[in-house]
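Just wondering, can you check both lines?
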Amino acid sequence: MMEKIIATDRYQFTAEDKAEIEHCLHHYDDSRAASIDALKIVQRRHGWVPDNAIAAIAEILGIPGSDIEGVATFYNRIYRQPVGRNVIAVCDSIGCFLVGFEEIYSALKKQLAIQPGQTTADNRFTLLPICCLGACDRGPVLMINDDTHFDVSVEKLDAVLEQYL
């Protein structure tokens, strides 16, 4: 279960998370390089990275919060707001666009009754576009959590979504 964090509260790491971030620091010459690891640790705990965690991460790493914010907003797999239990990233690159992206995206929006960036009422799915999933030869492609689904069709959507109950 994801915990809700109010952005005005000072972020408190668990002892395990803090130790894990500090351990990551030993793997890099520059503490900035541990930014992604630290963000992933926080996201693993909450499902997303609350605003107040940015300053706390920066403090542990000894770097400006703006550096952490820059990394957090650059990477599309770091979520800055709550997401559903399953995040559906639909490739909207030209390769997938040419082989049916629009039909898949329309079907997902209709079936889930949400728009891009939204989460279903049951918190089961969040729908996000993504610029490329690196499988242009097997499109249309979508990724649900860490699972990539190739050659997706509207007819296959039900079977794909049923895997994430």
The chain has seven helices and four strands. Residues 35-46 form the longest helix (12 residues). Residues 31 and 61 are 6 Å apart (CA to CA). Residues 1-7 have pLDDT under 50 and may be disordered.
